[in-house]
Amino acid sequence: MTETEAAARATSSSKPSITLIWLNDSRAQRIAWLLEEMGLDYELKVYKRTESHQAPDELKKYHPLGKAPIVVVDGQVVVESAFIVEYLIDHYHPQLKPAESDHKQYMQYRHLMHYTEGSLMPFMLLAYVCMMIRNTPVPFFIRPITGRVADGLSKSFVNPNLVSNYDWLESLLKDQPFFAGDELTGADIMLSFPIESAQERMGGFYSKERYPNLFSWVERIKARPAYKKAEEKVSAVEANL
Amino acid sequence: MTETEAAARATSSSKPSITLIWLNDSRAQRIAWLLEEMGLDYELKVYKRTESHQAPDELKKYHPLGKAPIVVVDGQVVVESAFIVEYLIDHYHPQLKPAESDHKQYMQYRHLMHYTEGSLMPFMLLAYVCMMIRNTPVPFFIRPITGRVADGLSKSFVNPNLVSNYDWLESLLKDQPFFAGDELTGADIMLSFPIESAQERMGGFYSKERYPNLFSWVERIKARPAYKKAEEKVSAVEANL
């Protein structure tokens, strides 16, 4: 049975039992949004980070790496955000990826599924580390030094790379509303985390004037009923943490 | 036409024209190894990093992000290491992935294709950044401070995560010679870069005693004729850089 046949069979058969293992301040919200877009029921199982902001050890009962998000689909544990998105789309909602016959968009989708966590997020992580270094509690007369270390890393390596990546993402939306064509796909769901984070944190170069397409795209996804529904569910859960 | 059919057709048809855009000190060697495993001819097009260790601007003529490796297959530009590996295997050598019917190994393969660059490499990158911070040229009386910043990041975040990731990888080889079963797959090719780098750079926790399975695996892949052939080609090219 090919994957396409499996997907067709799964789509037509009874609904799967899905649990989403959710952790605060993680990238799990994307998966909640995806599940809402697919119209699938799921149980949200909530875990809270420890005081040192680590994932709690309990997550290791699902997978030895103990990171969220994790989904459990009919007993099958799936980890790694991009793999979760691909797995769910392939099996339950192939409409959320371009058709293979639409070659250019299909290639873009497959590329972006790897690009988001494999290329873009490492630079976002480094930007976060530079910020942490700048804020390291050190005596005030030392602060210029730790600042210099962080600035060296930002200016020579992190910022130029972030700029070229966001410029490229902006260019992808020049003639189309979503990252792999006219319709929302898993690539938009993967990219939502870094692009929304850029808006919140990268004041330096990331502005509405420079990135009008990315700003409109964020408005467009936030207006989707599924996005709102996921946000409401997660907010309700977070209020009780 | 499904992807499986496309793969079958491509495998049986005439050989594709392949160019591998190669950059020194990059992860492009993996793709050379893969192409040798597949028995495909390819042209190696060599570029050298600039003095500030960046990819040269010429790479942007292939793709706006200007990073290596890039492969051009019959005019189709493919970027992002894991996507290149998946693309080549799907189209020209499906033997390098587990059969879909071998569910557990197929899931492992798909997971590891995302895991290597999406989860493991960011920690490797942070370990490298910590090393750079420790070696930042600062006056000697300041060095303890930059050292403290780097140590803080290493001890609280980077090292514990590297240890749990390598422990997990070690466990995957407990009962099988390769990461997704009894045969070499694209997952081994993806993992070769971080695992070989760990052996070279992570003296602190990464030892033969602690990771005997990973050390044997490295010996096993290095003994493969295709690995040796790629290494020879790349060495010959590097000697002329």
UniProtKB/TrEMBL annotation, chains A, B:
Residues 15-96 form the GST N-terminal domain. InterPro entries: Glutathione-S-Trfase_C-like, Glutathione-S-Trfase_C_sf, Glutathione_S-Trfase, Glutathione_S-Trfase_N, Thioredoxin-like_sf. Residues 102-241 form the GST C-terminal domain. It holds the Pfam family GST_N. Transmembrane segments: none annotated. Belongs to the GST superfamily. PANTHER family: GLUTATHIONE S-TRANSFERASE 1, GLUTATHIONE S-TRANSFERASE-RELATED. This is Glutathione transferase. The lineage of its organism: Eukaryota, Fungi, Dikarya, Ascomycota, Pezizomycotina.
